Amino acid sequence: MENVAAPEEDVSADLVTTPLRPAGWLLLAALLGGNIALALGPWFVREADTGPVSAGFWRLFLALPFLVMLARANGQRLGGMGAKTLALVALGAVTFALDLASWHIGIGMTRLGNATLFGNAGSIVLLFWGFIAARMLPKGLEWLAIVFALAGAAILMGRSLEISTATLVGDLFCLAAGLLYAVYLLTLQRARGVFGSWSLLVWVCIFGSPVLLGIALLLGEPVWPTDWTPVVGLFIVSQLLGQGLMVYALRYFPPLVIGLALLTQPAVASLYGWLAFGEVLSGLDIAGMLLVGAALAVSRARA
Question: What is the pTM of this model?
Answer without folding.
Answer: 0.84
